[in-house]
Amino acid sequence: MTNEELRLELISAGRKAVAQLIKVAKKDIIKDISMDDDLAADKMKNAAAAKKLAIFDAFEILSRIEQEKMAIEESKGEGSRVDNKQGFAERRSGKK
Description:
By secondary structure, the protein is mainly α. The protein has 3 helices and no strands.
């Protein structure tokens, strides 16, 4: 397989991973936990932390997918987004 084919497979796998992370983020935090339970607060805190991690991981994966798609486009010669009037630091800063 070529690098491009491998990248496309990774992009597909990344999209599937994001879909799974979305399912985790959508689940209810509280299920049949009585508020008198001493562990209820810890369970809620852990569930909230897991949701936060799932959401941030999903955004990180999506960001990386976009980077890889741009790299594939550039390698095909479908136009470079590099502005030659800017230096390396200016391009990497994300400020236009």
